[in-house]
Amino acid sequence: MERERKSQGGGIANRGFASMDPERQREIARKGGATVSRNREHMAEIGRKGGEASGTSRSNRANQNGNALP
Question: Which pTM value belongs to this model?
Answer without folding.
Answer: 0.35
